[in-house]
Write a structure and sequence with these properties.
Order of helices and strands: EEHHH
Oligomer: single chain
Length: 68
């Protein structure tokens, strides 16, 4: 499965998977959802993010978990 919104660059954040090349780890988005934040709350607090970023971060986490 390809992830257009999840990027990993060894020169940024030590290669941690991030949202669209931003220094915003996908795991942080997943943690916010797990903590009970709504998409609207996440987007309000982090205006650089888009709704599709949240969905893709969750899909990325699901796929990553199944490959442990």
């Amino acid at each position: 499965m390809a992830f257009a919104r999840i990027t990993s660059d060894p020169s940024k954040m030590a290669g941690v998977p991030c949202i669209r090349g931003l220094r915003f780890p996908a795991a942080t988005v997943v943690a916010m959802v797990a903590d009970g934040m709504t998409n609207e709350e996440i987007l309000s607090e982090h205006p650089d993010l888009e709704a599709e970023d949240i969905s893709e971060a969750l899909r990325f986490a699901a796929v990553s978990y199944t490959h442990l």
